[in-house]
Amino acid sequence: MVCNRGMAIVLGKPGVDALSEAVDALREWQYEGAPMQLHPGDLGWFWRFGAAATAAAVRTWSRDGQILAVGLLDGPTLLRLTTAPDAQRDRELAQQLVDDLTTPARGVLMEGRVYVEAPIGALVHDLLSEDGWNTDEPWTPLRRDLTGPVKDPGVRIELIGPEQAHVCTAVLQASFDGSTFTDEGWHAMAAGSPYADARCLVAYDDQDNAVAAVTVWSAGPGRPGLLEPMGVHREHRGQGYGTAITVAAAAALQDLGSSSAIVCTPSSNVGAVATYKSAGFQQLPERRDRYRDA
After folding, report:
1. pTM higher than 0.90
2. Pick from 171, 173, 150: which is nearest to 160 by CA?
3. CA 203, CA 42: separation in Å to the nearest integer?
4. Is the pLDDT of residue 172 over 50?
5. Which domains does the chain carry?
6. Most exposed: 6, 152, 245, 256, by fewest CB within 10 Å?
7. What is the Cα–Cα distance from 172 to 71, expressed in whole angstroms?
8. Please, are residues 23 and 43 in contact by the beta-carbon 8 Å criterion?
């Protein structure tokens, strides 16, 4: 329960030693039926840049020592933001967030065109709109329930550990144009605290070629787990490997105790949306980021 309204809300920039508090808060805020929001796995995936870089990208907003909101600067112009479930309509918090987001000197967002991602229904959306922020291109969240059985993916799936990290990074480099993911990045990611609840999987074809990869992030038993990232090698697309690795991802999250599997992709990426739906994911209402011009 959010209490002590009237006490000052403090913008924090946690160091490496305090990152676990932000991760724990995000873990606690995941629940079935929640709007798509920042997940501990998002911090885990960002950890590929190292613990220091992750700490430098995290912002927290607290009242009386209690974290009410966590943001991740996914680059200098995008803040991915979420709040405690019972603080989403907290006007004092929402107004403080808007003030900090629109004042470059606060060290959250730089000047120029900037973007904010926040859960659907959060009051901060309304206040940003009143402040003149526009809506950006739509994204499609998808969810798969994990209370029932998950079918066999139909291809060989390998769990990737440190000795096979290069296999995963090679597939992802061949899946995303301009990818900067490296073997060093994989090891940095795996050293982060969120990876204790994560698994990295690679799919192989019948000639032992690594064709697709995914990392899944649990937020703990009974909570939604996240797919981030999932990629199919550009030379092996159109053969069902995206569906296969996504089904394997769902099975891995189920083994970790997750209640559901969630993922979000640009609505313009119709191929990705179709792949997730073919793997048993249900399409949810679209969401849009807010942006402000210079």
Report:
1. yes
2. 171
3. 22
4. yes
5. 9-138 (3.40.630.30), 143-286 (3.40.630.30)
6. 6
7. 26
8. yes
